[in-house]
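Review form for a predicted model. The reviewer records the input and the model, then writes brief findings.
Reviewer: anonymous (R2)
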Amino acid sequence: MLIGQIRVTVENGQLDDRDIQYYIREIELRSRGKELKSITFRLADGYMDLRYAFKSLPFERIRRVSAQTTYHPARCIG
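Model under review:
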């Protein structure tokens, strides 16, 4: 199911919508501005396994520059 833009999965049982909203709200409050992408609730006897993922953050590509094989004094910073 989708809640807003968040993919929600509940395994091994059912969970009330209010409980799902509570956990989503708590994760968003503690995630410091990251966007929640998905959350999975795995219910078991006496506990609940909660897994979640954030949307990827944009980044700038960094390219590797090969070292010069010959020495050029004009290119040196001194």
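Findings: The chain is about 20% helix and 30% strand.
Further findings: Residues 2-54 form one domain.
Recommendation: see findings above.
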